[in-house]
Design brief:
63 residues; mainly alpha; single chain
């Protein structure tokens, strides 16, 4: 369920400041999500995700 809430928030288009969107688009214009941040292709990538209960409650309130 938490994953569904997070995916819903990430995939929802923002209605914020157009300047912030333009900055975001400019910063990520050359970003390639297929490139892994490792020197050797066989190395693993450790991803840590932390979430406090208060953050989850705020997230649910804003959905």
């Amino acid at each position: 369920m938490v994953l569904l809430v997070l995916l819903g928030c990430v995939s929802t288009p923002s209605r914020g400041n157009p300047d912030a969107k333009r900055l975001y688009d400019d910063l990520l214009s050359n970003y390639n999500r297929l490139i892994r941040p490792v020197s050797n292709n066989t190395d693993t990538v450790l991803v840590k995700l932390g979430l406090r209960l208060s953050q989850l409650i705020d997230l649910i309130r804003n959905v």
